[in-house]
């Protein structure tokens, strides 16, 4: 800063000697106002060689101004460098999850993860099966009614065979006993409907098992973490927050992961139950409609 002020003063004196004017203002970059200097010996310049002296003075003024600009630019760059904050490296979710998994004792966390993976496998299998079992039951019953009333029983059976899902299977069983009494047809449809309902719920008991196991394994890790904390206190012979915190951390992390796994499986399980209820209602409605169609067919014959 002192060098900048000195250069400003030299530039002012050279300009004052060259022009003979005693007016100069302080530089803003220095932050100090410069007072006016009286023009005492300004007119003492010799007449001869004035052009050469003026050229030398002009070159000196330009050099000093360039040096002043370089110093100001260097100061600005230094200030900008100081104000730029260092970038903060963000931690990804998978890295954080991996860190917490290791901190929660990989042995017990593996059991929780295994329960979650197996439960999700059963859930995905049920979701795919139930999704493929859904059909447009009303359209199917309308086609069957048209074929049965026209007397095309074999065509109605072929339609049921070519259609997937439990609704078409129940209708096929009813059409297979068209020549029997209505009581026998109804009994057959009811019995086969029970079998199809059991097929829809296949594997749900395993999902409920893993829903119960996931938090139980987490609580088991909690108990073992507490035991580890007390063992470390016993070995150290003193209750230290650091010693207690390590065991408590393991306990809480395993509990958290167990509860999260149970919540995820519970969401899938409720979704599966809703699809099973929808298909069951479709089966019951279609069975009643089929009995009405068969009754109309028998009355017309």
Characterise the protein shown here.
The protein has 301 residues and is mostly helical. The chain has helices at residues 2-19, 50-83, 93-103, 106-133, 137-149, 153-162, 166-176, 182-200, 204-236, 241-300. The chain has 10 helices and no strands.
Question: Key features?
Answer:
301 residues, elongated
Count of alpha/pi helices: 10
Helix content: over 70%
Biggest sheet features: none
Q: What does the radius of gyration come to?
A: 46 Å
Give the CA-based shape: elongated
Tell me the strand percentage band.
Answer: under 5%
Order of helices and strands: HHHHHHHHHH
Q: Average pLDDT across residues?
A: 74
Instruction: Tell me the distance between the termini.
Output: 115 Å
Structural class given helices, strands, pairing? Answer: mainly alpha
Question: How many individual β-strands?
Answer: 0
Low-confidence stretches: 18-58, 77-89
Q: What is the structure about, briefly put?
A:
This protein has 301 residues and is mainly alpha-helical.
